[in-house]
TrEMBL record:
PANTHER family: BLL0784 PROTEIN, YLXR DOMAIN-CONTAINING PROTEIN. InterPro entries: YlxR, YlxR-like_sf, YlxR_dom. It comes from the Bacteria. Residues 26-97 form the YlxR domain. Pfam families: YlxR. This is Nucleic-acid-binding protein.
């Protein structure tokens, strides 16, 4: 598979400096579309509460993650398809309330921050 890169251009007083970083493509568990990871929201199962799904916008939480298009419609579709249990390998019923709350409160173009 061919590696795709995107150039981060850093402006300096002497000119333009380019740094190549790989673009990571991920598949949304709801829509099955491949997108850049910066366009998707990572979700993980809570290590303390089995079956509770948590949003991970900074992509730092431990555990197996799944990627979701950051919209309520995609969340509903993933729930309907039971995609969370499959993607996160969870055998118990899942609670996506935290993800739904996060999406409702943070709706907008910069919902998937890499801070």
């Amino acid at each position: 598979m061919q590696q795709i890169y995107h150039d981060d251009a850093l402006t300096a007083s002497s000119g333009l400096i380019s740094r190549r970083t790989p673009i990571r493509l991920r598949t949304c568990i709801a829509t099955r579309e491949r997108k850049h990871d910066s366009q998707l929201l990572r979700v993980v199962e809570s290590p303390d509460n089995p079956g509770v799904i948590l949003p991970d916008p900074k992509r730092r939480k431990p555990g197996r993650g799944a990627w979701l298009t950051p919209s309520i419609a995609a969340l509903d579709l993933a729930e309907q398809r039971r995609a969370f249990g499959r993607a996160l390998r969870v055998s118990t019923p899942v609670d996506t309330g935290h993800v739904r709350t996060y999406l409702a409160e943070n709706a907008g173009p910069d919902i998937c921050k890499e801070d």
